[in-house]
Amino acid sequence: MADFYQNGIITTLHNIADRPLEDIEAELVSFSEQRPMGLILPSLYSELEGPALQNIIKELKHVPYLSQITIGLDRADECQYRHALQFFAELGQHHRVLWNEGPRLQALDKELQTLGVAPRELGKGRNVWYCMGYKLATAKVESIALHDCDILTYDRSLLARLIYPVAHPRFNYEFCKGFYPRTADGKINGRVSRLLVTPLLRSFKTILGSTDYLEYMDSFRYPLAGEFSFRRDVLNDIRIPSDWGLEIGVLSEMYRNYSHNRLCQVDIADNYDHKHQTLSLDNQAAGLSKMSIDITKALFRKLATQGVTFTTETIRSLKATYYRIALDFIETYHNDAMMNGLKLDIHQEEKAVEMFAQNIMNAGQHFLQHPMEAPFVPSWNRVASAMPDVFSRLEEAVELDNKEFSS
Hints:
- The chain contains 14 helices and ten strands.
- By secondary structure, it is an alpha/beta fold.
- The chain has one domain (11-405): Spore Coat Polysaccharide Biosynthesis Protein SpsA, Chain A (Alpha-Beta Complex).
- The strands form two sheets. It has an eight-stranded mixed β-sheet with strand order 1-10-6-9-5-2-3-4, with helices on both faces. Strands 7-8 form a two-stranded antiparallel ribbon.
- The longest helix is centred in the C-terminal third of the chain and has 28 residues, at 312-339.
- This is Glycosyl transferase.
- GO terms for molecular function: transferase activity.
């Protein structure tokens, strides 16, 4: 059971009363008359073969208020795309699958690359970006939710609570971030958020002093959650990273574009578990190691845009400060785990902190050595300026793929 405490500068919407799902969905159906609602599902083809997405589709079939579901499909050949069309045909709502490796979308992407306005890296950020473009192209929905496809504990109440704040006609929220506890199999999870992001933000405060941006980021209870919702107009000028910095990048863009009272976070689940990344101690290009580098670079870049000057000495001080704060957090999490009858391996936690500390140095050096790096995918406003017919061409490519391969 949640409390009602408001911490930080972002409104927190709690799950205080365990309100029946039927009541929330009935309201959402009435809201949909004024604000049609949609969903984005960024998916790897491999997730179609796992239990999580199969259950998600079974739950989504019964959602009565969605007008449109957009699935971004990565790493799929033609045979797999055909299978995906059959897999998602179970959905009763209007839906389309974006075949990101298909010839039509690849041709469009190549033209955008030539113009310098396409994502440069493969990954979730690129997938989400094209899905956002499709939502703008079709203009069928006003309020949009996005969540991952590997949620093992999914039920449709998660979606209802996630989209409610941006769908309610009397709320003025443009963006809502989901949060939840991360426990499974008797253990506390969420290592990157617990052991990297929170202590790193506190370390930046120690080194730089408290700033409005750092207070804003530290207000989110689970900043790396892949679940958020927004109004359609958010999509026009948002610039997002195409790497693992996606969630941090989205929060930073919301900070840049909107005042605090237009943003909120909401408790969307009592329990949440999904596919876990490996720590990858010996490979900086994979797993939590790459994730930690990308996230840290995203924070360096954002703070630099606010006039912060970083030097090698600053980064060394940041790393040392982070290391001490993160180690103190391990004791806090261990005691919290024991209080709740959960397990937490202190040795593994400290190994993660040691890797994250080293990756703060790696990310900082990369930032200093590549001052001209363009980490963000261009906004759709800029893309439409460079290619005025991009939305009609994107929608046409998706429709032709669906028509050709669905038979």
